[in-house]
Specification:
The complex is a heterodimer of chains A (about 170) and B (about 250).
Chain A lengths: L13 H8 L18 E7 L2 E6 L8 H15 L4 E6 L12 H10 L1 E2 L7 H5 L15 E5 L7 E6 L5 E5 L3
Parallel strand pairs in A: 2-3, 4-7
Antiparallel strand pairs in A: 1-2, 5-6, 6-7
Chain B lengths: L4 H23 L7 H29 L5 H6 L10 H4 L5 H22 L5 H29 L3 H14 L11 H10 L4 H18 L22 H15 L6
The chains are: A alpha/beta (about 170), B mainly alpha (about 250).
């Protein structure tokens, strides 16, 4: 091996890394990627090393560790020799960071995206109008503040009579 | 209590509160009064567990003796736990479970809000994450408090009794000790006197809406933070730690 092996320019750009991450699904809502969810806080590239800063969603979210492992595995698969993940708590992740594309995908998947902001007033306030992701109807009612995962509440649509999940604001 | 030990001790207490309440709630998974509450309880427990992990991990780093979150949860004896006595009380009936969490979350939310502004950056970050979850919990349990208090004659009476019973464990939340003083003075942490006043105001407002009476402050039970627990904690710890005690180092 010659010295030049250590000074080789990396063959990928930051944009490329974003594109790769765009393909890593959330393990519990696989229609959206970790980028759609706004979990990726930044990417730093230093020669052949890539460090991805990730904000966990919920304190107890069991998906966090799975996501961190899949990011490292995906980068390694793409040929990044030295891939790592840094957990960033501040500022705390909020559903306000879900991208518009992410919200569209959630809706197509049958999950109503968050409505309004995650401000304290919204969190402590009463229920909001959540349109049905299937028929677009606005006559919906809250069935349960909680759902199959920490991030969702359960609703039903009184127009089309279908139950649906709501990605709650937090 | 030296200045050096206080922050890790404080973090352990935060972790113990979250872990013990989380473990209590896990006990009623698959035993909730209805499916929706089943989901709520499991979600609450998961949030507390996640918060406990962050507090323990940080406490272990500050303590610098190589102890991990698992060591704190699974390898300490009953008397080393410093959680509030309120949180180890049995689930009782559904009204007891709701009142216990209402009294605690009303306090914990204020504590976390104050910690968001403290001088320890990492603790402030954990608090900022956790406080959003606790607001969501508090909204849910307050709704139930109102529904039960302002419900039938029987639900009103039973939840008023829950309050009367659990009230004696609330004094401990505001009785500061040197650890609290150091965190307040050196880290600009919560001032318990201020929190107590706000807590009383919030609790009174919710109880008014629920047509419940604010209990009178009488004898207040304390000792949790010195490791003097009620008889209930031992059973909880025994169940929680069984696997690591029987099969040390087991993992999957």
């Amino acid at each position: 091996m010659t010295m030049s092996a250590f000074t080789v320019e990396n063959s990928f750009s930051e944009q490329q890394v974003w594109d790769w991450l765009q393909e890593i699904p959330d393990p519990e809502v696989p229609i959206v990627s970790v980028v759609d969810l706004g979990m990726i806080r930044g990417i730093s590239i230093e020669q052949d090393a890539v460090e991805v800063a990730v904000s966990p969603t919920y304190s107890g979210c069991p998906a966090t560790e799975v996501i961190e492992r899949s990011i490292v595995a995906e980068l390694q698969r793409r040929g990044v020799a030295n891939a790592s993940v840094k957990r960033v708590l501040s500022p705390p992740w909020t559903t306000d960071w879900i991208s518009d594309a992410g919200k569209q995908k959630l809706r197509r998947y049958g999950i109503a995206p968050p409505v309004g902001s995650s401000s304290k007033r919204d969190l402590l306030g009463g229920p909001k109008l959540v349109p049905c992701p299937r028929c677009g109807g606005t006559q919906t009612s809250l069935v349960s503040e909680f759902g199959s995962t920490a991030c969702k509440a359960s609703y039903k649509c009184d127009d089309c009579l279908e139950p649906f999940e709501y990605f709650k604001c937090i | 209590m030296s200045m050096n030990q206080a922050p890790s001790r404080y973090l352990l207490r935060l972790g113990d509160n979250a872990l013990i309440l989380g473990q209590r709630l896990i006990e009623i998974v698959a035993d909730g009064p209805e499916l929706e509450e089943e989901l709520a309880n499991a979600n609450f427990a998961l949030d507390y567990l996640g918060q406990a992990r962050m507090f323990y991990t940080y406490a272990g780093e500050l303590e610098n003796q190589g102890r991990t979150e698992d060591d704190f949860a699974f390898l300490r004896g009953n008397m080393e736990f410093q959680n509030l006595l309120l949180l180890e009380q049995p689930n009782g009936h559904f009204g007891d479970t709701i009142v216990r969490q209402f009294l605690f979350d009303s306090y914990y939310m204020l504590q976390l809000e104050a910690l968001c502004e403290c001088d320890d950056k990492r603790l402030a970050e954990i608090a900022a994450r956790a406080v959003k979850e606790i607001r969501y919990h508090l909204r849910h349990v307050t709704q139930w408090l109102v529904r039960l208090g302002d419900g039938t004659e029987e639900s009103h009476q039973r939840v008023q009794e829950s309050l009367a019973w659990l009230w004696r464990y609330t004094g401990e939340m505001f009785a500061g000790d040197p650890v609290d003083d150091i965190v307040r003075d050196e880290l600009k942490g919560p001032d318990l006197q201020v929190i107590h006043d706000e807590w009383r105001k919030d609790v009174r407002a919710a109880l008014d809406e629920a047509t419940l009476e604010l209990p009178v402050d009488e004898w207040m039970q304390s000792g949790g933070r010195e490791g003097r627990h009620t008889e209930h904690l031992g059973y909880l710890i025994a169940e929680m730690q069984y696997l690591q005690r029987a099969y040390p180092g087991a993992s999957w």
